[in-house]
Amino acid sequence: MVQAGIVDHFRRNRALAAQALPDVEQRRWLSPLLYGNYTSVLSAIREHVTGDTIDLGCGDKVFEGAIRRQATSYESLDI
Predict the structure, then answer these.
(1) 3-state secondary structure (DSSP) of residue 38
(2) Are the C-beta atoms of 79 and 59 separated by less than 8 Å?
């Protein structure tokens, strides 16, 4: 089925992008949507993150570096 092939294509490319661009600062340039999302989230991290921090629903931890720069300690949880 063509649609399944397209979905697999995007999944593989997403995984490759995650490996090639592990840092959120690099990934944000992949699309205008990602740029807007990351810019908003990074702004919130800079403004609100302090002390001991847990990143719930962290996925592949694209914001770990930004959070670690602001927080005293960092823990993550994703199911």
Answers:
(1) helix
(2) no
